[in-house]
Design goal:
The complex is a heterotrimer of chains A (433), B (355) and C (300).
Chain A (H helix, E strand, L loop, with lengths): L1 H61 L4 E10 L15 H12 L6 H8 L6 H11 L7 E7 L2 H7 L16 H12 L3 E5 L1 H5 L12 H32 L4 H15 L2 H15 L7 H25 L3 H9 L4 H29 L3 H5 L4 E2 L14 H9 L6 H30 L4
Antiparallel strand pairs in A: 1-2, 1-3
Chain B lengths: L1 H26 L6 E4 L4 H14 L6 E3 L3 H8 L10 E4 L5 H9 L5 E16 L6 E2 L1 H8 L2 E3 L7 E3 L5 H4 L10 E3 L5 H15 L3 H9 L1 H9 L7 E3 L4 H10 L4 E5 H6 L4 E3 L1 E2 L6 H5 L6 E9 H6 L3 H8 L2 H4 L4 H4 L7 H13 L9
Parallel strand pairs in B: 1-2, 1-3, 5-12, 8-9, 8-10
Antiparallel strand pairs in B: 3-13, 4-10, 4-11, 4-13, 6-7
Helix pairs in contact in B: 2-14, 5-7, 8-9
Chain C lengths: L1 H16 L6 H8 L19 E10 L4 E11 L4 E5 L6 H7 L11 E8 L2 E2 L7 H7 E4 L10 H12 L5 H14 L3 H4 L12 H14 L4 E5 L7 H14 L4 E5 L3 H7 L2 E6 L2 E7 H6 L4 H7 L5
Parallel strand pairs in C: 3-8, 3-9, 6-7, 7-8
Antiparallel strand pairs in C: 1-2, 1-4, 4-5, 9-10
Helix pairs in contact in C: 5-6, 5-8, 6-8
The chains are: A mainly alpha (433), B alpha/beta (355), C alpha/beta (300).
Bound molecules: adenosine-5'-diphosphate and magnesium ion.
Chain lengths: 433, 355, 300
């Protein structure tokens, strides 16, 4: 009786204790879980906040670059000054200046005249020339034409030059501001979408500078990179993963590929300089060479991603294929590769995105350069988007600040598109097994 | 999937083919001018190149910003389309560079001085204005400075504030943002400001004659205890940092001061303010000449070279009211402009003896 | 648990000892081959074998580990031979020797001779591709290709060039699915992924895929271990039917299954083939102590 009671109570005691222990631990476990969740959440929030700050500051600095200030000029197309046989060679700059001088006849002194002529962009004369070449019947008439304003005027209109600071501390003095006000009063100043920014090449005049040249350069470069690194990378990954024997040599190769992935990109630039330029004699500053160098840089990424995705293909699929008599090549081509493709494509696109943002290796092969003409092929001198950003960021003119931010926006847009593409491709080709 | 793969492989073939033509390119010609060199001259050369590209039928020259030293190295590597035609330089070509170029077959090089660049020492308008001397700069920034009157005695730079350097200066911590040693601006600053300042101390000036190495080490070594902050090659960045930190001074090219007069002020050096006029007439002491160098044989072979040189040396470009002055170039006196224009017209080559 | 079993056995033996007709179990027990004896007991040879293995050793990890040891075994025509034994005793390893699937494992080496119709499959001039078409394999985990049901079946015949046109392929797909007893269930959704079928259906799809290339031998490595009893029963019926045309070697963990489907049974233990003989005899009158231990559930 006593004994059995004891036993019962001790059994109960043990049971209670277990429960107690579990319960006590439970609270702690949940606490740890909540803590971990909070850490994770705050980490994400923090990085999102940084991202937001980055985007907002870039956007705030850059959105004005998509607008451009134009001034309307009244130009007398003097038939005496324009040779109808040779429309291109007339002194259009003179005509533009004449028009400005007529608008402000009071300006006499040389220094002031210089300032006055500086109100419109030096690109104005080219716009005028284009107009005349298109409308030769207008010769002899007085025409009204919108031309881009000088970057200082643009900055004033956009509020980057403040009117209320003392004159001596302003980029534009009171007379210049008065001229701008005069134009504004006559409704001869307008802001319009800045088409030049998307269609033009680089320029030292902020109001004429565009990113199309850099975009083309980036496209050519990346096309070369893609067309070389994807097939080579995929073939290498397949060979190493599926065919190569595991011996010391393949170990060495593997270690080296992993090392290459970590090599600073400038080293690839030096390699490119030594091999492609000095040894093969390829042209400097060419997207072809840029693409080759970036291929060297992205190959390890693609190979590593490719091998990882080949590894992740379940062995049962390989056995199934081999088991009914597929050869190794058939097994890889028909079954393994299609399953590994999404991962490989993702790796490739990530590699491409990396390549798109790269400047350091391009420095060595001459792609960090001032290039005005839009590249038309793989051997034309070209620069790329991040280099364009770097060059603009380094320019003294204030107006390049907003161009820099705008170019960063364009670059980010490309990156977002590429990463989005990676997701879409993955979704499209992904299969369950 | 298959189609995508086939397309990619076709493109690969295309690229390989392109490589072939690219290699073929090496032996063929180049129809644009290739320019390398100093990042200080870059803003000026690019303006000329752009104008030239627009008003002539030639392609716009390609300009790489490689730094003066890098430019000379590329330029002096040889003759042929794969080598640049022109190199910009924010200092005169060194004898060793010229010798190397000649050894590589670049026998005839035309030297063209294009104007001057002032190096300004500036700070935020919110801060006090500085009236510096070159000696102040030397004492504030050298790694080792002479103390007392005893000749030859050096101690690690003890100065913490400008007032300690010179009682007339404000009582502000010494904090200078400047370019790294790879920059031409740094070379020029060290040579013009620091050496100039050091020369005001007699025994150091004498040292220049007896022990050139020790002299240079003394004048050209900038302190590394945090008072001088290497702010990278990007002068815009220095300007931005100056507005954020009114106590700091910055060292950069005149055009950046010119563009940012609303935010920053240039310090007087030896009583002269860094204005356009003062640099042009040579009264501002920290200014340097800017050059470019042309391969004579390329003038015949590369289309547009003659015209480009003519544009660069025209009055409307480098003259007193030329468009380069708008970009901050300080023009040469008229006589000097005439001399170099003539050199360009006759393509007078530089000889080792000239250096 | 074990105690219980032994005592039960004890009762059986006691019964035998109490006079009456001698129980076969008891009689055998006296003559059982001791545990430490490792030479194969029983008739491992058959007349006119389809496949025949002699002195087969398999090493893994570049010879570091010997997985099976001196196996001699014949596989007859139109018979089902079951291979049983505790986990890790080398059944799968041996099975995979028969169509050289071990070749795909790095560092695996097979010695000895294995012949199919008197031709050494490890000979220098032998191509594994036709060999594997001749000796098909069904795996433990159903592993259909992540393709449509139709493509799963058609793939093998296509790569081997067994079919010339769409009609032939259609016919072969239907025939294979019918023989695997899957046709009725999937005939309306041949274009849907094979991975969308249930486990039992998937395994039958894999069998259909194997028989579509019309092999001579089918190797099955625990084909029912992941299936429920109903699916298992269907597949067992299928095996029974298939033995009309094929020699089948099946690895199984279920002794009931072995006794239901096989004519001969081979018992493996730690890499050795301990005993082989007619299935009835192995289960009722094992000759080796280890075999008896295993089938009476003393371990395994
Ligand atoms: N790929 C392999 N590499 C190394 N050892 C292996 C490999 N596959 C099987 N083995 C070993 O060989 C022995 C036999 O394995 P296996 O044939 O799979 O046994 P089972 O009879 O359970 O099918 C086991 O000890 C196992 O650990
Ligand atoms: Mg097994």
């Amino acid at each position: 009786m006593n004994k059995s009671e004891n036993m019962a109570s001790s059994a109960q005691g043990r049971q209670l204790r277990t429960m107690d222990i579990v319960n006590r631990g439970l609270a702690r476990r949940y606490r740890a879980e909540r803590r971990f969740k909070r850490f994770g959440l705050s980490a994400i929030l923090l990085s999102l906040a940084f991202l937001a700050v980055l985007f907002i500051s870039i956007f705030a600095n850059g959105y004005t670059a998509f607008q451009q200030t134009f001034i309307q000029l009244e130009v007398f197309l003097d038939p005496l000054k324009i040779d109808k046989e040779d429309l291109g060679s007339a002194n259009y700059q003179g005509l533009v200046r004449e028009s400005l001088a007529k608008t402000f006849p009071a300006v006499k002194n040389r220094a002031d005249k210089r300032k006055l002529y500086g109100m419109v962009s030096s690109g104005a004369s080219f716009d005028l020339r284009k107009f005349v070449q298109k409308n030769r019947h207008e010769i002899g008439n007085t025409i009204r034409i919108w031309v881009p304003a000088d970057d200082d005027v643009d900055m004033l209109i956009k509020g980057h030059i403040l009117r209320d600071v003392p004159e001596s501390e302003r980029r534009m003095d009171d007379t210049q501001i008065a001229w701008v006000d005069h134009f504004q009063h006559q409704l001869r100043i307008k802001q319009e979408f800045n088409m030049t920014f998307f269609t033009g090449g680089d320029s030292r005049e902020p109001e004429l500078a565009g990113i199309w040249g850099a975009v083309c350069g980036s496209l050519y470069t990346l096309l070369v990179t893609l067309c070389l690194s994807f097939p080579i990378g995929v073939a290498t990954a397949i060979y190493l993963e599926e065919f190569a024997p595991t011996n010391r040599w393949t170990d060495v190769v593997e270690v080296n590929i992993n090392n290459l992935a970590a090599v600073p990109s400038i080293v690839f630039g030096l390699l490119g300089l030594a091999v492609f330029l000095n040894f093969f004699g390829l042209p400097r500053s060419a997207p072809l060479v840029g693409g080759l160098v970036l291929t060297l840089m992205t190959l390890p990424t693609i190979i590593i991603a490719g091998r990882a995705s080949l590894k992740s293909v379940p062995p049962s699929i390989r056995e199934a294929a081999l088991g009914i008599g597929a050869s190794k090549t058939q097994m890889v081509a028909h079954h393994v590769l299609p399953l590994a493709m999404p991962g490989m494509l993702t790796g490739t696109i990530i590699g491409m995105a990396q390549a798109l943002g790269e400047t350091a290796p391009l420095l060595m092969i001459g792609m960090v350069a001032f290039i005005v003409d839009i590249p038309g092929g793989f051997t034309d001198p070209a620069t790329v988007l991040p280099v364009q950003i770097f060059l603009w960021a380094d320019s003294p003119e204030r107006a390049f600040l907003e161009k820099t931010s705008a170019a960063i926006m364009v670059l980010l847009l490309f990156l977002v598109i590429m990463n989005g593409l990676a997701v879409v491709l993955r979704k499209k080709f992904e299969r369950r097994w | 999937m298959k189609k995508v793969l086939i397309a990619v492989f076709a493109l690969t073939l295309g690229v390989v083919f392109g490589l072939g033509t690219g290699i073929g390119f090496a032996s063929s010609s180049r129809d644009y001018i290739s320019i390398v060199g100093s990042s200080t001259v870059y803003p000026f050369a690019t303006v000329v190149a752009e104008k030239f590209g627009k008003i002539t039928a030639f392609k716009t020259p390609k300009i790489e910003s490689t730094g003066s030293g890098g430019g000379h190295k590329l330029f002096g590597s040889g003759v042929g389309v794969q080598y640049p035609d022109i190199t910009n330089s924010s200092r005169r070509i060194k004898k060793s560079e010229l010798e190397k170029a000649m050894a590589n077959g670049v026998k005839e090089i035309v030297e063209v001085k294009i104007g001057y660049d002032g190096i300004v020492i500036a700070n935020s308008k919110k801060g006090p204005s500085f009236q510096l001397t070159r000696k102040d700069l030397f004492l504030a920034l050298a790694k080792n400075v002479p103390t007392g009157d005893e000749a030859g005695k050096l101690t690690p730079n003890p100065y913490k504030t400008w007032k300690e350097v010179n009682a007339l200066l404000p009582d502000v911590k010494i904090e200078v943002l400047g370019p790294p040693p790879t920059s031409g601006t740094r070379d020029a600053f060290v040579e013009l400001a620091m050496e100039g300042g050091a020369d005001e101390i007699d025994w150091i000036k004498a040292l220049a004659k007896t022990d050139k190495k020790a002299y240079q080490a003394l004048c050209q070594t900038i302190r590394e205890d945090g008072a001088y902050i290497e702010a990278g090659e990007n002068d815009n960045l220095i300007v931005q940092k100056l507005s954020a930190n009114p106590a700091a001074l910055g060292i950069f090219g005149f055009s950046y001061l010119d563009q940012n007069t609303d935010k920053i002020q240039g310090s007087l050096v030896d009583g002269v303010s860094p204005t356009f006029e003062a640099i042009a007439d040579g009264s501002y002491p920290v200014s340097r000449p800017l050059y470019f160098y042309v391969k004579k044989v390329h003038v015949q072979t590369i289309p547009g070279m003659k015209e480009f040189l003519a544009e660069f040396t025209s009055e409307k470009a480098w003259g007193e009211e030329g468009y380069l002055t708008d970009k901050g170039l300080i023009p040469m006196p008229e006589a000097e402009r005439k001399l170099f224009k003539e050199n360009v017209a006759t393509l007078k080559p530089l000889s080792l003896g000239d250096l | 648990m074990r105690l219980l079993k032994v005592s039960k056995m004890q009762t059986v033996m006691d019964k035998g000892g109490n006079g009456g007709p001698p129980m076969p179990l008891k009689k055998m027990r006296k003559e059982l081959v001791p545990r430490k004896e490792r030479a194969t007991i029983g008739q491992f040879e058959v007349e006119n074998p389809r496949m025949s293995c002699r002195n087969v050793d398999v090493y893994y990890n570049h010879g570091e580990k010997k997985a099976i040891n001196n196996i001699n075994l014949d596989i007859g025509r139109n018979e089902v031979i079951a291979m049983i034994g505790p986990s890790g005793c080398g059944k799968s390893t041996f099975l995979r020797c028969l169509n050289r699937m071990n070749d795909t494992i790095d560092g695996c080496r097979v010695t000895g001779t294995i012949t199919i119709d008197n031709k050494n499959i490890y000979g220098k001039d032998v191509d594994v591709v036709p060999l594997r078409a001749q000796v098909g394999m069904v795996f433990q985990k159903p592993n259909p290709f992540p393709k449509s049901i139709y493509d799963n079946i058609a793939y093998g015949p296509k790569i081997h060039g067994l079919v010339q046109n769409r009609d032939e392929t259609d016919g072969l797909v239907e025939q294979s699915l019918r023989r695997a007893g899957l046709w009725k269930e999937v005939k309306d959704r041949l274009d849907q992924p094979g991975t969308g079928l249930s486990g039992g259906q998937q395994q039958r799809l894999c069998i259909a895929r194997t028989i579509a290339v019309n092999p001579e031998v089918i190797l099955m490595d625990e084909p029912c271990s992941a299936l429920d009893p109903i699916a298992t029963a269907i597949i067992e019926d299928l095996i029974d039917e298939l033995k009309q045309d094929y020699a089948i070697a099946i690895v199984t963990h279920s002794m009931q299954q072995a006794s239901r489907v096989s004519q001969r049974t081979a018992y493996f233990h730690l890499g050795d083939l301990i005993e082989v003989g007619p299935t009835d005899q192995i289960f009722l009158n094992p000759l080796h102590q280890l075999t008896e231990d295993y089938i009476t559930g003393r371990f395994g």
